[in-house]
């Protein structure tokens, strides 16, 4: 398939947060941007009149739009920063460097300090972030300071210096903000217990700290120290309400390739996320056409080899949704929990969105491929021997037992074929009997098709459960068509599909395309049947009273309705008005009928 036009690319963008990338006709990246809603933001470039000359030039150059879906606006902001730094696009004027976002550092020293920084130094210190704003960092540091007593000085607190009495406690000690490790008032072990808790808080794990504080609060309350207990309670509330994670990827996840796969009957879609120093630097989705009904494992192994060669990946570890064989030099991890599973799920979401977009594009520019895919999917989902290129769906419409009718709608290649729709007035059944009515219309429909040597459908759908299906089967048996046409019944709940001689229904996924087509068929049959029933009922109501007038035939009724337009106007007409239309004799009969009641 040729590359989709810009208009089609815009139509199929998701309404999700993410990062978009504009490329020119030569494949050079022009611009990277973030969006709360990708579809709205990107579309605005092409619908608004731009005052800025550079923006107008940029829009004219755009030939291709790529995007990466993420969970939140925060993630989009961080990912945008990573991609701008990597690709340095021409139209991103404010290129951001490593100082763009702050980190929280736990310094690699004997009594570690905890502070904010914009510089990541590889000296064994631990860094948490990056955070999107200093406000977040200050909130966290204030939280930590309020919960734990930590030193703020930059003294070298070696064992030798402390024993020599080199330092004296400062004002922070007297204010209760520090426990005085500089004079040996706090042991290294006690201090590191606090650091351990702080690391858990920065990772978003408050469980241990909460338990500890709740225990302290209980002890204070039991000792009647209510002011102290209230302070601890406030700390607990802050901890419970704070949402700590604002990183796109855990910084510890470095130089890893992430692969996920979505597949259907015809194609596989493999997404690749490349991680470097804890950040996503590339997203790419590969579409693979199936040849021999390959498994997801086979497709993923093939795609991983191809993508790694294409992008010259040297990563020693990959994350995948299931085990694959790639040789001994690559560590294969199948994440189950935590940050690793989160990034794998993000990759899978990107594969899903890519697949959805291709479906929408196919529907616009290559309807045949779209139809072929739907037909292959329906054949598999409904356990059919052949693709249901021609489907007919029957629905009965009788309301309060009056004017029973039935409708037959026809779909060809997954789309309505309205010229083939048919209405049926029930002829042989007295009263409201849905089963007998279904038996009659199915028999009449296929008896005529056989007599006229028309092509029979591949699938018949009966709107109703087991009873309706059994009635339709009687007619197929009578016409010797049992086994020659596939037939199923759909219950009112719609997810239940009934098959002949099988008491257990088949359940389809609520979001499956097969169910969507069946739902469309059922709704169309219902609409078409109700429309005919309504027309018949209204005509019946209109004509009934006029036709009951003694001495008045069908031709007189038609003449009166043509002239007066409604039965009500006929009833209200003057005698001379009626005479001019139907003559003296019949005019008197109509006039006397209405005025001598």
Automatic annotation (TrEMBL):
- What terms describe the molecular function in GO for this protein? DNA binding; excinuclease ABC activity
Q: Which UniProt keywords apply?
A: Cytoplasm, DNA damage, DNA excision, DNA repair, Excision nuclease, SOS response
Subunit details for this protein? Interacts with UvrB in an incision complex.
What's the protein here called?
Answer: UvrABC system protein C
Residue ranges annotated for the UvrC family homology region profile domain, each copy included? 262-476
**CDD domains the UniProt entry points to:** GIY-YIG_UvrC_Cho
The record's comment on protein family reads: Belongs to the UvrC family.
Q: Which InterPro entries match?
A: GIY-YIG_endonuc, GIY-YIG_endonuc_sf, GIY-YIG_UvrC_Cho, RuvA_2-like, UVR_dom, UVR_dom_sf, UvrABC_protein_C, UvrC
Query: Where is the protein localized?
Result: Cytoplasm
State what this protein does.
Answer: The UvrABC repair system catalyzes the recognition and processing of DNA lesions. UvrC both incises the 5' and 3' sides of the lesion. The N-terminal half is responsible for the 3' incision and the C-terminal half is responsible for the 5' incision.
Matching PANTHER family: UVRABC SYSTEM PROTEIN C, UVRC/OXIDOREDUCTASE
Q: Which residues form the GIY-YIG domain?
A: 15-93
Give yes or no: UniProt keyword Glycoprotein. Answer: no
Enumerate the spans annotated as UVR domain.
Answer: 207-242
The record's GO CC annotations read: cytoplasm; excinuclease repair complex
A Pfam family name for this chain? UvrC_RNaseH_dom
Report the record's Gene Ontology biological process terms: nucleotide-excision repair; SOS response
Q: What is its main location?
A: cytoplasm
């Amino acid at each position: 398939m040729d590359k989709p036009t810009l208009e089609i690319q815009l139509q199929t963008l998701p309404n999700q947060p993410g990062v978009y990338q504009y490329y020119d006709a030569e494949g050079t990246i022009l611009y990277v941007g973030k969006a709360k809603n990708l579809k709205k933001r990107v579309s605005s470039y092409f619908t608004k009149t731009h005052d800025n000359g550079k923006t107008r030039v940029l829009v004219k150059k755009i030939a291709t739009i790529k995007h990466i879906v993420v969970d939140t606006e925060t993630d989009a902001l961080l990912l945008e920063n990573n991609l701008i730094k990597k690709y340095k696009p021409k139209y991103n004027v404010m290129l951001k460097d490593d100082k763009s976002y702050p980190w929280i550092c736990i310094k690699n020293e004997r009594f570690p300090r905890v502070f904010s920084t914009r510089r990541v130094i590889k000296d064994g210190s631990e860094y948490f972030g990056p955070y999107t704003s200093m406000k977040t960092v200050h909130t966290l540091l204030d939280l930590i300071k309020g919960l734990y007593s930590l030193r703020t000085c930059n003294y070298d607190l070696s064992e030798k210096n402390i024993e020599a009495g080199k330092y004296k406690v400062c004002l922070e000690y007297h204010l209760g903000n520090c426990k005085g490790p500089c004079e040996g008032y706090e042991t290294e072990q006690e201090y590191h217990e606090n650091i351990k808790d702080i690391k858990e808080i920065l990772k978003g794990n408050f469980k241990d700290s909460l338990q500890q504080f709740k225990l302290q609060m209980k002890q204070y309350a039991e000792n009647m120290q209510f002011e102290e207990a209230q302070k601890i309670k406030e700390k607990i509330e802050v901890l419970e309400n704070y949402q700590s994670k604002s990183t796109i990827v855990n910084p510890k996840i470095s130089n890893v390739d992430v692969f996920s796969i979505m597949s259907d009957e015809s194609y596989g879609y493999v997404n690749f996320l490349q991680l470097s120093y804890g950040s996503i630097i590339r997203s790419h989705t590969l579409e693979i056409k199936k040849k021999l009904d390959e498994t997801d494992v086979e497709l993923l192994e093939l795609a991983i080899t191809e993508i790694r060669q294409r992008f010259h990946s040297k990563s020693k570890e990959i994350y995948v949704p299931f085990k694959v064989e790639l040789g001994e030099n690559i560590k294969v991890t199948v994440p189950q929990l935590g940050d690793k599973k989160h990034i794998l799920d993000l990759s899978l979401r990107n594969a899903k969105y890519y697949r959805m977009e291709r479906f929408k594009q196919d529907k616009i520019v290559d309807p045949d491929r779209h139809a072929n895919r739907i037909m292959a999917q329906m054949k598999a989902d409904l356990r059919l021997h052949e693709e249901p290129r021609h489907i007919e769906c029957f629905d009965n419409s009788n309301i309060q037992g009056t004017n029973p009718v039935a409708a037959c709608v026809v779909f060809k290649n997954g789309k309505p074929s309205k010229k083939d729709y048919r209405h049926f007035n029930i002829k042989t059944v007295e009263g409201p009997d849905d089963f007998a009515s279904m038996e009659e219309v199915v028999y009449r429909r296929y008896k005529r098709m056989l007599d006229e040597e028309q092509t029979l459908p591949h699938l018949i759908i009966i709107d109703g459960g087991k009873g309706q299906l059994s009635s339709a089967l009687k007619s197929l048996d009578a016409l010797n068509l049992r086994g020659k046409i596939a037939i199923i019944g759909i219950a009112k709940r719609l997810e239940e599909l009934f098959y002949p001689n099988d008491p257990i229904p088949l359940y389809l996924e609520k979001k499956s395309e097969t169910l969507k087509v069946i739902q469309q068929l059922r709704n169309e049959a219902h609409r078409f049947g109700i429309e005919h029933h309504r027309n018949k009922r209204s005509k019946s109501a209109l004509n009934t009273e006029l036709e009951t007038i003694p001495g008045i035939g069908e031709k007189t009724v038609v003449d009166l309705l043509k002239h007066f337009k409604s039965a009500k106007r006929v009833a209200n007409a003057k005698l001379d008005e009626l005479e001019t239309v139907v003559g003296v004799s019949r005019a008197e009969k109509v006039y006397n009928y209405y005025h001598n009641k």
